[in-house]
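Problem 3 from the worked examples.
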Amino acid sequence: MSPRSAVPSRSKRRLLLAGLLVAPLIALASPPASPDWVQLSTDQQTALAPLSRDWDRFSPAKKQQMLNLVDDYQALDPAGRQRLQARLKGWSELTPQQQDEARANWKRLQALPPDERAAAYDRLRTLSSPHH
């Protein structure tokens, strides 16, 4: 191998230089795939406040799932925001075993025929209403 063949061609050098210049810009423009709590925006922290204690232990997929709620949260009226945060708080207070049980119940509920599912929702609403 001659010393000349070890030197990249001019077009390869330009491509390499362009990549080195653009890569940091892409990294700055892309949010981290698994941001720590302190890396979240103020709006994200406000919406997800009930999860702050456990946030840094969440998997990257769970964090992204929760971050997807932020846009929904922003679109809600104050009462809707309060309901969402109360649900997040309630969920965060469940043990992992209780969360697994809730997920299994949700899957069973979703597997019901539509009329049975609607009746089950009505029963749940009745049980969870403050006047019950």
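Problem 4, a separate protein:
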Amino acid sequence: MTSHMEPKMLRIYKSQDGHLVLVDRAAGLAIQEPVTWFDLFNPSADETRFVEDHLGIAIPTRDEMQEIELSDRLYQEDGAEFMTMTATAKLDSDYPVKVPVTFVLKGATLITVRHADPKPFQLYATRIQKPNGAVWKRANWSCWVCSKR
């Protein structure tokens, strides 16, 4: 369960020169260039709606992510592939938690939906922004997702 103090955040990454860069959203939610990764961390309703409208998909709610049956964690809908898994967060605290994380692949775009900040997200987001960081390839995301199961 997230604390009331956790930020609502949508991070948007695009591919540039062989690595991913964070899109500056100072002008708001308007996006002109192709997006490689939408990272929804404890998203607001406006952020969720923006991604849904941009990609033509329905993002699962927090309740839907928590209630999904094990047999339904992999599915296709609206031309996208969805996978929900259980991750752990706050492992360095006295109160670690299990949290659902949903990964969505729509064409060449990855969408992650989470309501906690598991360490692999922090590490990967840092790594991919380095000049010699990971180059976006659909297979890279699939392998990364499967390795975190």
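Solution to problem 4. The beta strands are 9-16, 19-22, 37-41, 74-77, 80-89, 97-106, 109-114. The radius of gyration is 15 Å.
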